[in-house]
Amino acid sequence: GKDGYRHYMDKELHEHPLVIGQTLRRMIDPATRRVVMPPLPFDLAAIPRATITACGSAFYAGLLGRHWLESEARLPVDVDVASELRYRDAPLSAGGLALLISQSGETADTLAALRALRAGGQHVLSVLNVPESSMARDSDMVLETVAGPEICVASTKAFTAQLSVLACLAIATGRARGTLSAEREQVLVQALLDLPGKAAELFDLRADIQHVAAIVADARDVLYLGRGAYFPVALEGALKLKEISYIHAEAYAAGEMKHGPIALIDRSVPVVAIAPSGRLFGKTASNLQEARARGGRLIAFTDAEGAAGLRGIAEALVVLPEADPFTAPILHSIAVQMLAYEVALLKGTDVDQPRNLAKSVTVE
Ligand code: M6R
C-alpha cells in the first residue's frame, strides 16, 4: 500500500535514502570503506571500452555512468538509447563491456540491444531492479539495484539506485585500471556513504520546491539546463515533468542554449537550472545571465556557494546541502523529481498512472 502517502510517487520519493543505503551496502565494505564488487566473469582491467544502453530514465542514469567511468576510470564509453543502438550496427571492440540498465529488466528495446551486444562479442553486465527478469537471464552478470517494487509509472528510487550502482562500478573500474588512488577511493566512498543522510535532508526543502512549482505550473513550456554531470539531471527533471504534469519541458546542455533554444526565452518560458558550485559553475552562471537578460524567469537548484553567485540572477533558488561533486548529481536528481511531483499536485493530474504510459514497455 501507500503507507499513508497520497501517491506511490510520494512514498517512493521518500524511499530514496533507504534504497540508496541498501544498494550501496551490497557493494561497499563498511570495515575497509572500499568498493567490493561481486566476482565478475570478466576482467575489468582488460575491458577496452564500454557501451551503455537503456531507455528513458535508465538512459539518463547511463549518461551519468559514462561521466563517472570516464572521469574516475578513464574508460572510453559510448551511451545510446536502446531503440537506436539495436539498429545502429555500431562497431564494437572485441571483449568490450555491454552495460545495460533497466528497472524492470523487461523493456523490449533494451532486451533486444542486450542480445545484439552479446552477439557482437561483448561481456554483458546488467544493472537491474528485478533479478529474475528476462534481461537477467540473458546477462553474464547482474548488479542489483535494491530499490524494491516501484509502482509509480514515473521512475524515482530505481533511478538513484541505478546511479549508486554505477558510481560503485566506476570506482571498481578505476581501481582495476589503476587510474584511481586509494586516497581518492576513500573520498568517493565517503561521499557515497554520506548520501542517504543528505537525501533525507532534501525533504526539508519542500516549501522552497513548492514555491518553484507554482512558477512552473503556470507555464506551457519549460527549459531545463545543466552542464557536465548536471546535464543528465536536467534531462531527468524535464522527462519527469512531462510525464506527470503534461507540461512541455526540454533539457539542454547549458552551453547549447545560445545555439538555438535561447530564441524561445521570454517571461512565459521558465528556465530551471541545475547549477551547484564547482568547476563548471562560472560557465553555467554566464549562460543563465544570458537567459535572464532575455527576460527569462530563472529558477536554480544549487548549493550555498552557488546560491551566493546566483542571487542577483535567479528569481527562486532551491539550496541543496553541500555534497562532494561526485555524488551531488544524485541529490539534485531527487530534487528535480520532487519538483515534478509538486507541479503535478498543482495540476491535479493522475500522478501514479499518467495518461498513455505503461510502467514496463515490453513492445517495441
Ligand atoms: O524498466 P526500464 O528501466 O527498462 O524502463 C525504462 C523506461 O521505460 C523508464 O525509465 C521510463 O522512461 C520511466 N517512465 C521514466 O520515469
UniProtKB/TrEMBL annotation:
Domain (SIS) ranges: 40-179, 212-354
Catalyzed chemical reaction(s): D-fructose 6-phosphate + L-glutamine = D-glucosamine 6-phosphate + L-glutamate
Broad enzyme group: transferase
EC number(s) per entry: 2.6.1.16
Taxonomic superkingdom: Bacteria
GO cellular component, one term: cytosol
Keywords: Aminotransferase, Cytoplasm, Glutamine amidotransferase, Repeat, Transferase
Location of the active site: 359
GO biological process: amino sugar biosynthetic process; carbohydrate metabolic process; fructose 6-phosphate metabolic process; protein N-linked glycosylation; UDP-N-acetylglucosamine metabolic process
Molecular function terms, GO-annotated: carbohydrate derivative binding; glutamine-fructose-6-phosphate transaminase (isomerizing) activity
Subunit and partners: Homodimer.
Protein name: Glutamine--fructose-6-phosphate aminotransferase [isomerizing]
Residues of the full protein shown: 244 to 607 of 607
